[in-house]
## 1
Amino acid sequence: MLGVLSAVGVAALLLFGLILSPPDVAQADSVRLFYIHVPSAIVGLYLAFGVTCLGSIIHLRNGSVFWDLLAGAAAEIGVVFAGFTLVTGMLWGRPTWGVYWQWDPRLTSTSLSFLLFLGYLAVRRLDLDPAVRSKRAAILGIIGFLNLIIVRQSVQWWRSLHQGSTLNPVDAQIDGLMLFSFFLGLIALTSVFFWLLLHRFRVAWMEHQIEAASVTTALAARRSEAADYDGLAGNT
Amino acid sequence: MLRDAWLIASKDLRVEWSSKVLTGQVLPFGVLVLILFGFGISPDRRVVEAPERAVLEQVAPGLFWMAVLLSALLALGRSFAIESVDGNLDALKLTGLDPAGIFLGKGLAVWLELVALEVVLGAGAFLLYGAPLGHPGLLAVTVAATTTSVAAAGTLYAALASGLRVRDTLVPLLVLPVLAPVLLGATLATEAALFGPAGDGWPWAGFLGAFALLYLGAGILSFGPLLEET
Amino acid sequence: MTQPGNPSPEAGPTSARPTAASLPVVALDGAVTLLGGFPALAGADLRVQPGEIVLLEGPNGAGKSTLLRLCAGLAPLQQGSGRVLDNDLSDRVGRRRVRRAVGLLGHQTSLYDELTVEQNVRFWARANRAVDTDIEPALERLGIGGRLRDVPVSGLSAGQRRRTALAVIVCRRPHLWLLDEPHAGLDRAGRDLVDDLVRQAVAHGATVMLSSHELDRATELATRIVTVAGGRPLERGPSPEPGPGSARTCTGSADAA
C-alpha cells in the first residue's frame, strides 16, 4: 500500500518536477533539484530525527523495545536522507554559485546534523548489552534532536551576520506549478520515508524476535551444563 | 547533591594532581596545537583589507578555542579513563551518591582543569599571535560560559561512551558536532571582546550561557538512568 | 543499625525454622540474566535466610559471579523475580536500595591507582556514607594502617589491593556481604582474616554469600553449601531434585552442611 503510494508519488514527482513545471527565471533548470532537495531535508532532518527523538523518549519512559527499534530505524533512514540533501545541495550549488561548497547556513548545519546522527548510529552499533545500548542511544537521541535545532539556529544566525540569507527556494514570486511540484515532492518523499521505515523496522523487529527465540534454546543448553557437572561431582 | 559533587570533584583533582597527566601531557599538547596553527597560517600573511594587521592575529580567537577544544577532548577522556579501570564505575553505582552529584562533580573537576588550561593557552595565544584586549568583562563571561558548556556537554557524552573499548575514538565523534555551535559562539564573542565592538559579542555570550544551562540540565537528568543501567 | 552481640543471627541457620517475621535476605525465583545474549543465569532459584554464610561452589563459568552481581543489583534480571533485603530487583528504586545496602568484593578491587591506600579508603567510605571514625579501625584491622597507608595503590601487590578493598567493605557495614573468591591472592594470614571478618559480620547481624575454590577452608566457614552449575544453583542434600519452578522446596531448608 505504502509502497504503491511511494512509487506513484515518485513517478508523479518526476513528471511534474522534470517536465511540467517551468524553469526558473534566475536559476533555469537547476531549480528542479529543489523539488527533492528541500523535501528530503525536511523529511530527513525533522521528520526522521523527530521520530528518533519521540521513540527515544518513549523508550526511556517504559523501556519499550518497539520504540527503541523504531528510533534506530528512523535515524538510519534520516542519515541517508540527510546525505542525499547534502549531495543535491552541492549539485545545485555548482551551477548557481560556481562552487560545490559555499558556507551556506542550511548546507553547513545539515552537514553537522549528518555527523551528529552518524555518532548516534555509532552508539547503536556498539558491542554492548542490548538494554544498556538502547538506553544510552535513547539519551543520545533526545539530546541529539535538541542539538540539531541549536546547530541550525546558531549557524543561521552566524551566517546572517555576514551576508544576506541565501536564495530562498519558496519565494513569494514562485510559480503555481512549481509550488505544486514542491508539495508533491514533500508528500512523495514522506511516503518513501514511511515505506522505508516500515521495512527497516520490520527487519529489526524480526532480528529481535530471533534473538528472543534463541534465548529459550540458549537457556536449555545452559541448564544442561549442570547435568554434566552433577555426574562428575557424583563420582568423587 | 552538592556535597557529593564536591566529593567527586576533589577526588578527581587529587588523582590529577598526583598523576600530572594534565600538566605533563594535555597542556603541552595544547601549546603544540597553538604553534602548529601558526605553521598552517603563515605568521607573515597580512589581512587584505587592513595590511597593518596579521591574519594570525585576526583569527587568534578561533585558533585559541580550537586548541582548547582539542585539549578538552583529552581531559574528558582522562576524566572517565580513571573510572573505567578496576571496576570503579560499578563501585560508584554501589554507593549511595546522587547521580546528579556525580555528574556535577566530574564536570566541576573538568571545568577547573579547563580554566587552568585556558589561562596558560590564553597567555600563549597572546604571546604567539598578539591581539589587543578591548573588553575584559565580555571575555571573562565568554570564557566562563564556554568552559561550562564544554565541561557539561563533554562530561555527558564521555559518560555515554564510558566503559567501552572504542571510547577514545567515539568521544570526539560524539562531542565535536555538539560543540560546533559553542566554538562558533565562543569565537565570535571573543573576537568582539578583543577587537570590539562589544555589542556584537554579548548576544553570543548569552547564547553560550543558555547552551551551558541546557547541558547542565540534560546531564543532571540523564545521569540517573545512565548509572541505573545494569 | 546493627546490634553487636545479638545472639539470634548466630543461631539463625540451625534453628528449627525461621521466625515468621524474618524474611529471606535473598529470594530468587527463576532468575534469568543475559549477558550479551548469553544466559549467565538460566532460571536461578535461591533462598538465603538472615545470618547464613552460603558458600557457592561449582565449575568455572557456572554463574557464581553473575549470581553475586545479580544480588548486588548490578547484573540485569531479565526473567523471573528476585528480592534482596526485601527490595525488588526488577524495580528501579528497589535496585538502588539494594546497591546501597550490600558490600560486593568482586574480581576487581575498585581502587584509584594514583591515590594512596588511605585516600582510597577515605573516598569510598565517604561515598558510601560511612562514619569517618570507622576508617582508622578498618585500616588497622586489615593490616594496612602502617607503612602501606601512604603508598599509592599502584605500588601494592594483589593481596594488598584486596586488603584495601576489604577495608572499604568493612567501613561500609553492609547487611549482605557478597564476596567473589575473597581468598584468592591472599596469604594464609589474609585468608584467616577474611574468615574472621565474615564470622564477625554474621555475629553482628549480617548475611554472607561467598564463592571460593578453597573448598576446605570455605566449607568450614559456611553454614550451607550451594552448588552452582549451568547457570543456576542446584540444591544439595535431602531436598528432592528441583525442577524449574519448584523453588519452594529449598525455602528455609538451610541445613545442607
## 2
Amino acid sequence: MKVPLKWLREYVDISLSTSELARRLTMAGTEVDAILTTGRDWEKISVAEVVDVSPHPTADRLRLTTVDLGGEQMTVVCGAPNVAAGQKVAFARVGAELIDGHSGEPAILKAAKIRGVESAGMVCSEKELGLSDSHESILVLPEDAPVGTPLGEYLGDTIFDLDITPNRPDCMSVLGIAREVAALSGGSVREPPGDYEEQGRPIKGRLSVEIVDRDLCPRYCAALIEGVQIGPSPPWMQECLLAAGVRPISNVVDITNYVMLEVGQPLHAFDFSLISDRKIVVRRARPGEVLMTLDGTERPLNNDALVIADAKEAVAVAGLMGGAASEVTEKTTAILLEAANFNPANIRRTSTTLKLRTDASARFEKGLSPELAMVGIRRAVRLMVELAGGRAAEGIIDVYPGKKRITRITVTQERLRRILGLQLPTLQVRQTLTSLGFGCRWVPPDRYVVRVPYWRTDVSIPDDVAEELARIIGYDELPITTLRGAIPPAQPQPSRELRERVKDILAAAGMQEVIAYSLTNLESLTKVLPPEELRERPPLRVANPMSQQQEYLRTTLRASLLGTLSSNLRHRQGRIALFEVARAYLPRPDELPQEMESLAGVVTGDRPDRWGQPTGEPVALYDAKAYLEFLFDRLGLTVTYHDGEEFTLVPGRTAEVRLDDQRVGLVGQVHPRVAAAFDIEQDVYLFEVNLEAVVPQVGKPRLYQPLSRFPAVEEDIAIVVDEGVTAAQVQAIIEAFPLVQRAVLFDVYTEAPVPKGKKSLAYSVAYQSLEHTLSEAEVNRERRRILDRLKGQVGAVLRS
Amino acid sequence: MTLPQLQELREIEDKARKELAAVSDEEALESWRITHLGRRSRLNLLLRGLASLPLDERRQVGETANRLRSQLEEDLSQRQAQLSEAAVTAAVESGRLDVTLPGRPLAMGRLHPVTQVLRDILAAFVSMGFQVVEGPEVEWDYYNFEAVRIPKDHPARDMWDTLWIDYARNEEYPMLLRTHTSPMQIRVMEQMQPPVRIVSPGKCYRHEATDPTHEWMHTQVEGLAVDENISMADLKGTLYEFARRLFGRERRVRFRCDYFPFVEPGADMSIDCPLCEGQGCRACGNSGWIEILGAGMVHPEVLTNVGYDAERYTGFAFGLGVERVAMLRHGIEDIRLFYANDLRFLEQF
C-alpha cells in the first residue's frame, strides 16, 4: 500500500523525521518496504501548457507540439494520441533524467531529430516520470497546475510503500496509518468530515434493498445522489490518487477510489437509471448466471458467489467488481452509491474462483468492520455533493443484519505480566491503548476492561491487547530473561542420530554430501525403476506442480544422485564420490506416505595418483564396496554380501547387503544403459542402504576380544577352488576353527598354472591360543583339519 | 731401566691411536678393533705372554697393558658414537625435502553447507535445553494450516503458497507438502505434556518461482517452548543468545512486531547486516537489518487445539530459514546454489 505523506498530513501532524517515522512504523508492525521520493529526479522538468498541436510534415502518427513554459515557447515532436491544446503537461528539457519508456531504465534526454524535425525536449508520460507503468499517453496535469513551476515543487512527495500484514485491513487506508502514526508519535487524528446537506427527496420509497443471503452480507448501505455532473475530479484529488498509484478517471469514480484509500471502505457507484425496478437484491448467483464486469470480461458465476442484483439480473459481483451494464458514464446524472460489508471467506473464494483480485476484494477478504460502511458512504456522499454538483437524497438505506456488539475484553494485570514479562504501570497501559483509539477502564484491584474500536477487527482476546501495548511501547523495551524451569527429559532419536553419524562417516571416508530436490519427474524415475514397480506403487504426484520437472515425490534417491553426478561430470575429471542421505516417499493408501530415511552413494572416475591426478585406472566395484565396509565397521555392525540383482545394476556385478539375514542395501555397477540415460559414458558404481532397517541394530556395544599373552604362529595357505566358490565361503570355513585367530585374504589368482575354471585364494592365517603357546604339532593338526573341511565343503585343494 | 714390553705397549698405543683417528666408517672401525683389540692383536698376544714374566715385571706390565686395553676400548666406543652421529647427520643433511610440495592427497569428503549450518543452529539450542525432534514433510492440511489458525479461505494462506498432493480423498482430507515446520508444534504437543522445549528441523516446500532469494525447497528450524510462566522476555533472551552464538557477540539484534496467525504477540528478529555493518547495502535492502526469523508467543487457541490449559501455560515459538543463515554466514548471494549441487560450490565449505 502506497501512502503519500502529503496526504497523510491531512489527518495527523507528523513531528518526526521521515526516517524515524519509517522506523517506528516498521517496529510497530507496519513495515515500510521502501521510501519513494517523487520529484527528486525531476530536474529540468516543469509544468507547461500546450498552446498548439499541428501535424508532423512527414509522419502521420507524430504531431508538432508547442508548449509554453511561462514566457518561453518550445516546439517538440510528440507521439502520444491524447495531446491537445490547452492541456497542462510535464515538459522535460534536454538533460533531464527520465525513465526510458521501452527499457524501463533511467536515461538522460538528448536532443534528437525525429523524422527530420529538431526536437529539444519531451512531453512526459507517467512512466517516463517514474509514476506508473503507463506509457501510451502523456500525463495530463490538473488545469490549475502553475505553468513554469518545476514539476518537483508541484507534484513531488515522499511516499511510503507499506507492507500491510493480513490481520490489519484497517491499515489499508491513509486514515488507518494516521492512527498508527498518532499513537507512535503522540499526536491526534483528524477524522475526515462526513456530514452534508440533504437537498434531495427522501431515498425511502425510491429504492429498496433486500439481503437474501444474510450470512454473506452483514450490512448494505445505499445512498442516492442526483443531478451530478460527470467530469474530471479536482486537481488535489487527482494528485492524491496519482501519488497512491491510482489513475484518475472521473469525479464520481475518483471519489469512490479516494474514499476507499482514505478510510478503507470499498464503494461502488451505479448509474441509478440503469438499475431495473429501483431494487437491489443481495443474493447468491443463480445457476448459469453470467456477468460482464467493468473490465469487459464475461464471468460465469457459481452459486457460492454473491452478487448484487436488481430486479432482473446481477449488476455486480459483490465485493469484487461492478457490472459493465450499470457502469457510470458521461451521461449519468443519478448515482446509486453502495457501501457494504461481505463475508471475508466468501469474497476470497469467489476471488480465487474468478481469478480476480481487486483493491476491494483485498480489503473485504481480510475482514473489514461493518461499521465502516456508514463512515465510508457518508464521506463519499459529501464529496459527491461538493465535487460533482450532486443533490444528496435524504437518508441512507441501511440494511444491517450482522450488527455486532462492541467488543469488550477483560484483561488482568497478571496476564499482561505473564505474556510480556514485565509489569506495566496502569497509567501507561491506559495512555497507550487510548492513543490507539481503544477505551480502557481500570477495574481495581487487578484488571482492565478494554473497549475495542470498531475498525480493529483483529483484536479479540487479552493477548491481542498485550501485543498492542508491546508494539507501541516497543519490543525493544521488553526485558530479556533466560528460560527457567524444568528441562523436559530427553527422548531418544535413533533414526536422526544414525543419519548424522552416517553423514560424518562417509564424509570422513572422502565422499561429498549432496542434497537434492525431493520432487522429480516421471522420466527420471522411469530410468531407474522397473516399469512394474512404477505401475504397482506409483509415486505421489503434486496436484499443482510448478513444472513437469518437479512433479513427483521421489521414491528413490538414485535418479537425483545420477543426475547430480552427470551434471558435475561436465566440468570434472578424476574420481567423484557423492552421497545423499534423505527421505524416499513411499505412498500408502489414504495415509501420509512412509518417509523412509535412505542412503545412496555413487563413485566413478579414475583413482588419483600422488598428485591427485587421474591415473587412468578407473575405480571398480570394490572401491564402492569399500565405503560400505568402512561405514558398517564404524557403525559397529557386521553385514554380509551376497550375489544380488537389481533393475538399475549390472547382473553379476551386484551385491546384496544383509544384516542378520535381512536385505538392508546393495552395491553394484550401474548398468551402462542406465548410465547412458543420464548422459554418463563411464563406469559408475552405486550403493544404497535402507537406514530404517539398520536403526534397530545400531548402538549395541561391541564385545571386546581378550588379547592373548602367547605368541601367534602365522603362515600362508593357498588353495585352489572352482571359480563359483566365493571368498566369503572360504573365509567363513577357516575362521570357524577355534585356534584361528584371524585369516586375511591376500591374493586371488586365476592365470596358469591354475587350471581354467578354477581360482587360487591365498590367506595369511594366524593361529593363537589364549591359554598356552601353540606347539608345532597343534598348528599342524589344525591346518590339516582346515584343509580337510575346505576340501569336503568347497572342493578346495592345497596349491602346491 | 725400561722393560721392553712397556716399550712395546707404547708402540701399540701410538699406532692404535694414530690409526683410530684415520678411521672414517663402521667397517674400518671394525677392522681396527680386530687389529688392535682382537684375539690376535699384539696387545692380546702380549697379555697372553705375561705368564712367562717374573712376578713383579708381570704385575708392572700387566697393569699397564690392561689400562691400555680399557683405554683403547673407551676410545673405540667414543669413536663409534662419533661415527654414528656423523652418519645420522649426513643422512639428515642429504635428505632435505621441498616442504612446500603438496601433501599426498587424502580423499577429502565434506558435508553439505546446509548440513553444517543446521548442525550449528541445533547445537546452539540443544545447549539451552532444547531437544531435536523431526516429523513428516508430507502433511495433512489440518496440521499445516487448520490447527495453527490458518483456516481455509483465510487471507494469511497467501503467506504460504502450497504444493498440494494429488490423491483420492483430497477434498475431505487435503494432503500437502508442508509449507513450514510449524505443524511440528501441534504434533509435539499432541504427544507430550508441558514442559516442552523442542527444535524441529526439516525440509519445507512452497509453490514459488525461484530467483536469487527464493527457492521452492528450503530447510527450516522450528522452535517451541511451553511451560508455566514463559514470557516474551524469555523469547527475546533465548533468541538473543542464539543470534550471538551463530553470528558473533558484536552483532546487534532487533525485534519488531510482525504477524503470524499462530502467535500473539507476533515478532520477527533481525540482525544488523554483517555485510555492510548496518550501514545499508543491497543485501539488506538498504535498511541495515536482515530478518532471520519469525517468532511470537504461542496463540492460546493453538494451545487449546492440543488440549493444553491456555490459562496455565504460555509459550513461545519461532521458525528460521537455514539457507538464509548459511547465506549470511558465507556471503552467498544466490540461494539456488544450495540444491544445484555443483561440486565447485560444495567443495568450498
